[in-house]
Input
Amino acid sequence: MSGTITGLFSGRLFTFYMPVTKEHFLELRNKLAREGVLLVAVSKMQSTEAIQLLYEYGHRDFGENYVQELLQKQEVLPPDIRWHFIGHLQSNKVKYIAPFVYLIHGVDRLKLLIEINKAGNKLDRRIEVLLQVHIAQEETKFGLNEKELAEILSPELLSRFTGVRIRGLMGMASLTDDSNQIRKEFGMLKNLFDHYRKTSAGKGFDTLSMGMSGDYTLAVEEGSSMVRIGSLLFGQRSIV
Ligand SMILES: *Cc1c(COP(=O)(O)O)cnc(C)c1O
Output
């Protein structure tokens, strides 16, 4: 299932440990694709060589959590990578990723959406985002509650957002072994997603981002269309 990879990357000979083989990676990705689920490879705190390897397997969607790290990687890696920002984004850092980011998953407050909208208008682009909903039991996780979500998705407010396109919702389930609890939380998010898809605010929704290494099979069963998987592909996170 796994092995040590040796190869030439960016002109340097490199050896590193990669838990997932090409065969297993493509098998997982294609299996998800057949169910209509896009795999985002979460490469935070992984080397550019490891990203390059999956790139050579034909993968283009990568997820990062930290602005500085993303900027460093984006600069040296191929320009056709679709960078997903999945971390907690500070308003004052939006401008750095706005020109190239493919999808911002974690919009968890109105203030951040306003900031992204401003950056989008300035660049004359609609920056694509997901609204992050708090579905876990832990207080520590970020996300909008249902009331805050409803406020953002009110037609009066939405018509002012010409620099963003809201493509759907994102959520993180509780960190627990209780699969019923996880299923319940993902199910809640899917219900909200379906609810808003029937309204004018959500009629363009096409993306429900839920599921990580430990819970993606449950998420897919509950209706996810995008999973964010890191350690299962890359192993333990190390450095940059
Ligand atoms: C780190 C991270 C992931 C990936 O986690 P793994 O357990 O390594 O698959 C997914 N989503 C978010 C928001 C993350 O921060």
About this structure: The chain has ten helices and ten strands. The first helix runs from residue 22 to 34. The pocket of pyridoxal-5'-phosphate is lined by residues 42, 44, 65, 86-87, 172, 212-214, 228-232 (CB under 6 Å). The mean pLDDT is 93.
